[in-house]
Amino acid sequence: MVAVQRATSNVAMVQQHFGNTISRLLLPVDGAHAACCEEMSSAMSSAESAALRGLEQCIDTIMAEVDRLLAAEQKATDYRSPDDGNTPDHRPTVACTRVVAYLARILEAANSALEGLNKQAFMTELGNRLHKGLLNHWQRFTFSPSGGLRLKRDITEYTEFVRRFNAPAVDEKFELLGILANVFIVAPESLPTLFEGSPSIRKDALRFIQLRDDYKTAKIASRLSSLMIE
């Protein structure tokens, strides 16, 4: 990100120097000004593309570490009812707190190194990738009702954190995750009407419902057969 910041600053300096000095010197030369402007535009476009590729590679690296943290820290029992009869733990899971702590450091670096459209694009893409990564991650687990409540606690942590990205589209996606988690909490008979007001997440909801620990015993598939064929 620091490299992108420096490259962006250098590009701005070149553009300013061209506009203030070189451009005026070329005006008297027939055809030179137009040709140089065209070359300048092409060079700036190449520089912008290189900066975007750099940011994309940075996001790839960040998400690889997020995936590693989730795989290492998320336990199969995090979203299941306690076997020892103890009260369920509704604090954020260790995996969630570790990921948020890591991303907080990334956010601090991004705020220092990026600005303007580069920062906006970076934070939006990172938020979208995080959302997708979490959805894929959670599909590896089975959820009890108390586990669904703990998942909602994790989602609350993630949602509050990504608000610092200042990316409204990302905020909306994470807020919908909180609604999605309700599939693990409500009684089986309430599932068919749960998403009547949120059709945009019904596809994800139908996948997540199958992760309920009572999916087979409560014969949930038969309750949702009409929704699955729509």
Automatic annotation (TrEMBL):
It comes from the Eukaryota. Coiled coil: none annotated. GO terms for biological process: exocytosis; Golgi to plasma membrane transport. Residues 1-222 form the Exocyst complex component Sec10-like alpha-helical bundle domain. GO terms for cellular component: exocyst. InterPro entries: Sec10-like, Sec10_HB. PANTHER family: EXOCYST COMPLEX COMPONENT 5, SEC10. This is Exocyst complex component Sec10-like alpha-helical bundle domain-containing protein. It comes from Picea sitchensis. The lineage of its organism: Eukaryota, Viridiplantae, Streptophyta, Embryophyta, Tracheophyta.
